[in-house]
Design goal:
The protein is built from 14 helices and 15 strands. With 407 residues, it is α/β, with parallel strands linked by helices. It binds ligand 7TS.
Length: 407
């Protein structure tokens, strides 16, 4: 393995020495390349972008727009203006609901989401369907494999469907949904496809045009970038016909006492002073991830997930949620231990300096559907190691006996 960890000041920090960080699906750590990029922007190029007529502000604007160009190339958008900077994936999804959703959904229409969605891709659609007298329909997955079948797609996406909102990768099951197939069905029905890519973009090569996604949302902080910076990709023809989400700042063309007209894309969707430092840091994260390459990242994440799953299969009373093939987990392994509350699993592991997430993972409808309201989740990234997986497994093995169980 290449020693990526030396790129991460976090891991050499005195407080974090020896820590096994397995909560990468919640947020990742940042390499110095990203931290340096933020520092460099504020030390050298900081001004309010898109406004000033002086050289410094032009530099700030260039830095911001270069970041947009890098992101557009990274996800293979056709044009830079199809990339809108937001605060995070949640805001990107809300933007679509408040603008496209609230103007295009009518009484009797249907919005289809999958049962494995993060709340950020459910609540906005609950809001739209309730406001418009439309219906929210759930695409259910196979309880064992996590796969959404062709039959389910055919049954739930039809002539009433106007929006299909689905995760590219589930934050609980780790499964990759077949977006191309779902997009084909949606487009045939005359619906648009909203893809929540929060857990996909960090782990697999994402090509929004090959997927034929109409909208695609993700967060910088899950791919070693900064918090407070997210992306909404949208097809230009759709974005151009949508009303603005938030109002104020440089998103206008002209304002009278009564009326306003809107700036062209992407400014129309970026009200107020933009997060240029965040965008520049996201660009650094993208370049860093590209320097490692998805050939390596995907393979490594799959290999560690497989090691985790194979190890867990050998431990009595431990059950892995979802697919039995580690190559279908994007580094996310959710599990339960008989008789031990997931919060206790996380607390016990914390005393061993292992950080994992436990609870509902902001996917309560999935927990109800699978009959497991709370679970524990280990999620790895390219900087995690086989040694860490083995230490983790050895601790998981002992949890029941530490909790007083005899077998
Ligand atoms: N969609 C998915 C699939 C996610 O996993 C998350 C965050 C979001 C949307 C929201 O991202 P945000 O950046 O707007 O917060 N998921 C998790 C998680 O699994 N644990 O903590 C956050």
């Amino acid at each position: 393995m290449t020693d990526f960890r030396s790129d991460f000041p976090f891991f050499s920090n005195e407080k974090n020495k020896g820590l096994i960080y397995f909560d990468n699906a919640a947020t990742t750590q940042r390499p110095h390349q990203v931290i340096d990029a933020i520092r460099h922007f504020y030390e050298e190029n900081n001004a309010n972008p898109l406004r000033g007529l002086y050289d410094l502000s032009v530099r700030a604007t260039e830095a911001y727009e270069n970041a947009r160009h890098t992101v557009a190339r990274f996800i293979n958008a056709a044009e830079d203006c199809e990339v809108i900077f937001t605060r995070n994936a949640s805001e990107s999804l809300n933007l679509i609901a408040y603008t496209y959703g609230m103007t295009n959904i009518r009484e009797g229409d249907e919005i289809a989401v999958s049962i494995m969605e993060h709340h950020s891709n459910i609540l906005p659609w609950q809001m739209v369907t309730k406001a418009k007298g439309a219906k929210l329909v759930y695409l259910e997955c196979d309880r064992e494999s996590g796969v959404i079948s062709d039959e389910e797609i055919a049954a739930k996406i039809g002539s009433r469907t106007k929006i299909v909102a689905v995760a590219h990768v589930s934050n609980v099951l780790g499964i990759t949904n077949d977006i191309e197939k779902i997009a084909k069905a949606a487009h045939k029905a005359g619906a648009v496809v909203v893809v929540d890519g929060a857990q996909a973009v960090p782990h697999i090569k994402t090509d929004v045009r090959a997927l034929d996604a109409d909208f695609y949302a993700f967060s910088a902080h899950k791919l070693t970038g900064p918090t407070g910076c997210g992306v909404l990709y949208g097809k230009k023809s759709l974005l151009e016909n949508m009303p603005p989400f938030l109002r104020g700042g440089e998103m206008i063309e002209y304002v009278t006492r009564e009326e306003a007209t809107w700036a062209p894309l992407p400014a129309k969707f970026e009200a107020g002073t933009v997060n240029a430092g965040g965008a520049v840091a996201l660009e650094a994260a993208v370049k860093y991830i590209e320097s490692i390459g998805f050939d390596y990242i995907t393979k490594h994440d799959n290999s560690l997930a497989s090691r985790l799953i194979e190890g867990m299969k050998k431990i009595p009373h431990v059950s892995v949620i979802g697919n039995s093939d580690g190559n279908r987990h994007c580094g996310i392994v959710t599990f339960t231990i008989d008789g031990v509350h997931p919060h206790d699993i996380a607390t016990v592991l914390d005393t061993e300096r292992i950080a994992i997430r436990a609870g509902h993972h902001c996917a309560q409808p999935l927990g109800s559907y699978l009959g497991v309201p709370a679970t524990a989740r280990a999620s790895v990234y390219f900087y995690n190691t086989e040694e860490e997986v083995d230490v983790f497994l050895s601790k998981v093995k002992n949890i029941r006996s530490w909790m007083g169980f005899k077998d």
